[in-house]
Amino acid sequence: MAVTIAVLKERLAGETRVATTPETVKKYAALGLAVVVESGAGEGSSIPDSEFAAAGAKVAKTAAEALKAADIVLKVRGPDAKETAALKKGTVVVALMDAYNNRPVLAALAKQGATGFAMEFVPRITRAQVMDALSSQANLAGYRAVIEGAAAFGKAMPMMMTAAGTVAAAKVFVMGVGVAGLQAIATARRLGAVVTATDVRPATKEQVESLGAKFTAVEDEEFKNAQAAGGYAKEMSKEYQAKQAALVSEHIKKQDIVITTALIPGRKAPILVSATQAASMKPGSVIVDLAVEQGGNVEGAVLGKTALTKNGVMILGAPNLPGRIAADASNLYGRNLFAFVGLLVKDGKLAVDLEDEILKAALLTSGGKVVHPNFTGPAPAPARAAPAKKSAASATAAKAAPAKAAPAKAAPAKAAAEPAPTAKKSAAKKPALAKPAPKKPAPKKK
User: Fold this and answer.
1) Residue 255 scores a pLDDT above 60
2) Contact 224/207 with Cβ under 8 angstroms?
3) 75: enclosing H helix or E strand
4) Can you state the percent helix, strand and coil of the chain, rounding each to 5?
5) Vertex 379 angle, CA 67 and 91, to 5°
6) Does the pLDDT of residue 423 top 90, yes or no?
7) End-to-end CA distance of the chain
8) Are 175 and 260 in contact, with CB atoms under 8 Å apart?
């Protein structure tokens, strides 16, 4: 019997993407796999049931029907309680699980005996590039952020020479030069804006300039050594944070559109733009916060809404920007999943090799247990490290000081969790030393 893949309709409010497309359905069929798609799954991406059927998929009326014979379940977001309860033991579930914020989903999958994989944990190695869903979706988010900002901004983006006079080009500032940031820079440049960007990693300067934008940062000796192993940024000193904050504060005042893109897995997004900095911008200026679903990079950002400062600066908190171009987002994500499923199936049969470095890194649950090392302990509250994060990119040195507390609170990440036990031990030793002190003089008095 052929391995059966079930593709379910997304039930999270506002999620318009789908985990497969007619293109990938044909590819699965070529591998000898059967595909069952829940009716209506492609509506948000403008894919009717008839197109899935024409590509060779069976269309099921309900999720329960689609899951009956499913060996592999593909989703954009993690399964809800009803979907999980309908899984048969041993079913493989692959999705963007948002595991740090959805620990109950992991527990439910383990209890059901399902093997769960998180696409966001696919390692960024050469062999896994085609499976990198975070990058494929961030690319589209960066593009859409500029479109959203341009639509809200009440002026033209490019410079225009007219008989009535010249229209100045819009000034766009991108904060955070990852995949989304680079695409935002490229898109804003294509629209004719004057673009600047900043990041604490020195390697990004060349990337920014290669796209025709200007790099903005305090480029001292500390900055030159700011990149840690794996391409991640080191925590900067309070002195550097103060200098960088002062530079950014002056720069933001002159910008028309600011786009923030900083995300840290398992932790609340760092505050990059304070309320004071936002208020310093001109009336009618726009800030687009790509991290609003994870707490936000901008003080005052509201999930799903446009916040307005007293002086008329708009802070856009639109969630799920890839979902606003769902057809392309689904196409790219579907291809990411197809490549991943290729690791799960061999010769038309389900053969999950948990020693494969990609599968091992993405594995969340197996054999009735939560097995990913970041989630085997007590459930932490990663998003509650907000106070330290907010101060990390604030406008003053005083606000920058508490940033050291952030690593200790980020329990899910191994490296970040190490300082926490140390802090506890030192705290425990202080009362132990304090108690014997008054007892020593007591015998002497006797």
Assistant:
1) yes
2) no
3) strand 72-77
4) 45, 15, 40
5) 20
6) no
7) 88
8) yes
Question: What digits encode the pLDDT tens for the residues 263-276?
Answer: 888 889 999 999 99
What CA–CA distance (Å, rounded) separates 121 from 336? 13
State both tokens at 109.
């999958």
CA separation for the pair 223, 244 (Å, rounded):
10
List, in sequence order, every residue forming a beta bridge with 15; answer none if it has no partner: none
223: its two tokens: 């900055």
| Across 231-259, average pLDDT | 86
Q: What angle do CA 217, 391, 194 make, to 5 degrees?
A: 30
What does the alpha-carbon distance between residue 360 and residue 7 come to, in Å, rounded to a whole number?
23
User: What's the chain's Rg over C-alpha atoms?
Assistant: 25
Alpha-helical runs (H) found in 191-322: 204-210, 221-224, 238-252, 275-279
CA distance 184 to 170: 14
Query: Do 289 and 317 form a contact (C-beta atoms < 8 A)?
Result: yes
Q: How far is 193 from 150, CA to CA, in rounded Å?
A: 10
pTM of the model: 0.82
Strands (E), 226-375: 257-260, 286-289, 306-308, 314-316, 345-346, 349-350, 363-366, 369-370
270, 260 in Cβ contact below 8 A? no
| CA dihedral (44, 322, 296, 81) positive or negative | positive
% of the chain with per-residue pLDDT over 70:
82
Task: Collapse the DSSP code of 100 into the 3-class scheme (helix H, G, I; strand E, B; otherwise coil) and give the result.
Answer: coil
Residue 32 CB partners (closer than 8 Å, separation 6+): 2, 3, 348
CA distance 398 to 407: 18
Amino acid letter, residue 256: D
The 3-state DSSP class for residue 174 equals: strand
Contact 46, 326 (CB under 8 A): yes
Least confident of 230-244, 280-294, 355-369, 409-423: 409-423
Q: Which residues are catalytic?
A: 124, 129, 132, 135, 232
Counting other chains too, the contacts that 351-358 makes at CB distance below 8 Å and 24 or more residues apart are: 352/92, 352/115, 357/123, 357/125, 358/122, 358/123, 358/125, 358/127, 358/128, 358/131
Could you tell me if 163 and 187 are in contact, meaning their C-beta atoms sit under 8 angstroms apart? no
Pairing verdict, β 345-346 and 349-350: antiparallel
Tell which residue, 8, 35, 15, 231, has the closest CA to residue 125.
Answer: 231
**Can you give the length of the chain in residues?**
446
